[in-house]
Sequence to fold (746 residues):
Amino acid sequence: MARAQADMPADGGAGDARTVSAKPAALLDEGQLDDLPQRVVAARVGTLARLREIWLAHELLVFLVRKELKVRYKNSFLGFLWSFLNPAMVLLIYFVMFRYILKNGISDFAVYLMCGLLPWNLFNTALLSSSGTLVAHAGIVKKVAFPREILALTQVGVAACYFFFQSCILVVFLLGFHVMPSWQYFPVMLLALVCDLVFTAALALALSALNVYMRDIEHLIQVVMVALFFAEPIVYTWNNLGSRLGKHGLVWLYLLNPLTSIVISFQRFIFGNVPGSQGVLATYPQSFYYELLAIVLGVSFVLLYLASLLFRRVEGNFAEEL
Amino acid sequence: MSAAVIEVREVSKRFRLYQEKYTSLKERLLHAGRVPYSDFWALRDIEIDVAPGETLGILGRNGCGKSTLLKCIAGILKPTNGEIRLRGNLAAMLELGAGFQPELSGRENIYLNASLLGMPRREIDKRFDEIVAFAELEEFIDNQVRFYSSGMYVRLGFAVAVNVDPHILLVDEVLAVGDERFQQKCMQRIHDFQNEGRTIVVVSHAADTMRQLCNRVMVMDAGQIVTVAPPGEAIRSFREVLLDLGENTAAIPPVAPQEPATDGTVAAAQLDGVVQPAAPQPPVRKVRLSGARVETTTDRPHLYPGEPACVVVEADVTEPLHGVALGCSVWGSNGSLIFDRDGEAMTLPAGRSTLRFRFASIPLLDGSYSVNLRVQDPGGGAVHARLEPAVSLVVENPGTSTGMVALPLSLEIEHEHRPGDPPA
Fold:
C-alpha cells in the first residue's frame, strides 16, 4: 500500500502514458539496457531473426524429442527397449516371409527391403506425426511463446531417432548375413540422409501449419503416404519400373520424386555388395548419384525456405485457430 | 531515448469471426473465397511504453482486449498491425503448468517447462533445487505429474515460471493459486521481483491486486486504452467504465466496431469471451443532479476530524421515481473506497428537490476526500443519475494521530496501589 500511495502525482490520464510515475529500483543502467537481447513482435518476422530464435531453442528441441521417445513407451513393461525390438521383429518377419514363403528370386530380399525402408520410414513417420502435432500441442501453442517450428522439427527429430534404432538393427542383421556394404558409396548415403532430413523437414513444416486450418490434412496424408510408398523402388526393384521408363526416356519422371534418388542411394551403399545385386539396383556411375543428390538437396532447401515462409505467414493466428 | 523495455507501437489485432468455421478441406473448397466472416478488432492502436523496473497493471472487464494484448507482448499472438519491441528475457505466466506432460515425472517436467520458457539447460541445473523447494514438492518430484493434485500442479508451474529469471514477467490472473500461504509466497516473490528492478505486466480485473502491485495501471475497454494513470485514479476510471450504463460514453468507444459482414449471427462459440454483451441502452434520463455543495457547522474551509458535514445536491426530476435509492460513496485521494452506501428505497417527486446527505460526523484524518452521489435502483441496479465527484471534503487534523480514520480513542491508566509500593 505504501508503495502505491507514494506514487501519487497530482493528475494522470492518457496524456502521460509515456511518463513513469515511480522511480523503481534499477536493475540495469541505461547503457546496459541496450545490451539486452532485443525482440520484436510484429506481423512479419525476418528469416534470419527466426533462424536465430530456432537455434536458441535447440535445447528445447532435444527435450521435446526425449519427451516423445519417453512418452511413447511409458508404462509398458519393456519400455524403451521397444524402440529396438519393434524394427528387429519387423525385419525378422520380412526375413521369414521372403526367405520361405514369398520367394522372389532375390537373395536377402529382407535386407533389400530394409535399405529402402530406412529413409522411407524417416519420411513417413515424421510426416504422419508432424501433420497433427500443432493441434495435439494446442495447450502450449496457446499459452507459451516459443518458435512453433520446433514442434514440427521435433517430429523429424523423433523420426531420425527411430532411423538410428533401425539402422542399428540392420547393422546387426548385416553382420549376421555377412553382408558388407560398398564403402565407396558411404558418402553418397550420408548425402542422401541429409537430403532426406531436409526434404522431410520442409514438408513437415508446411503440413503442420496447414493442418491447423484444414484438419483433413492429417487424415489425407495417411492415404497419400500409402500411394507414395509405391512411387519408389522399395518393395520392388529398380528394374521393375526404372529400367522400363528408361527405355522411353522417361526416367526423369521417376526421379522427379526426391525420395527415389534417396532410396536408390541407400540401396547402392548397403546392398551394393550382395551377390546378384546388379540385376536389382540401378546401374549408374557414382558421379550420377552425386549430381542427382545435389539437385535434390538444392530443391529441398528451396522447399524448406518456402515452407518456413508459409509457416510464418500463418502462425500469427495459430493461437486463435486451435 | 530508448528507456523502455517494452515498447508497444500502434498495435492492432484483428480477429476474423467466421459465421461457420470451416476447418475441413471439403468445406474450405466448397466455400473457397466466400466464407462469411466479420472482423473484430480486439486491439486498436495501442501505444504504451513500460519502463525498466516498472509494474504496469492492465485493468478491464472481460473481453476488453487485455489478455490479447498480453499475448501479443508475449509473442503468442502476432499483432495485425504495429509492433512490440522487447528488451531482455521475457517469461509469461498465462497458464501455470501449460505443457506439463502427465506421463512424465515432476523432474522431467521442470526441465521441459523451463526449456519451453526459454531457460538454458545449465541454468535449469543450477536452479533445479530452488524450483523444487519453492514448489514444496521435494518428496514427489520423481512421481508422474498425473498423480499430482491440482494444487501441486500449479505450484510447480509457478515455481518454474518465477525461476526462469526473466527481465520481463507477464502475469495473467494467475496469482490466486494454491492455499493462502502459498498465495502469500507468490505475492512475496512478485514483490522481490519488483525490488530487484524487474519489469512486470499484470493483467487482472481484481482492482485490489492492482493497487497493491502496480506503479501504473492502464484501463482498457473495447480494445482501446481508456486511461493510463496511477493505480488509484485508474481504478476509479475503471469503476466508471464498469458501472457506466451509457451516461459517459464519450470516453468509451463503441463495443463492436463492425457488424457481421453478411446476414446471420456470428458463431457464438467464437464470440464467447471476446465481446461483451451489447451495452444496455441508456435509460431515458428522468433525473439530473447538480449544484452539489457541502454544508458544515464551521466557516473554516476544512473540517476537523469528527465534525458533522452535510452534502447537499439539487435533483431535477421529470417524472416521479418510485423506489429509488440515494447512493453515496466517499473515496480517499489514492482511490481507495472509504465508504459506500445505497440508501433505502425512497420516492423522488417530479420537479426540483434538494437532497441532503447528512453525516453526523466525518471521522477521517488528514486528507482530501471526494464524495460521489448517485440515484440508483436499490441493490446495485440501474443508475439513474450520478455526480462524480460531487464535492470534496478536506479534513485537517489538529491532533497528533496519523492514518486515515479518527478512531475514538481514549487513554486511561488504572493504578492499583499495593502496600509496599513506593508512594505515588
In short: The domain at 6-88+167-243 of chain B is CATH 3.40.50.300 (Rossmann fold). Residues 131 and 159 of chain B are 5 Å apart (CA to CA).
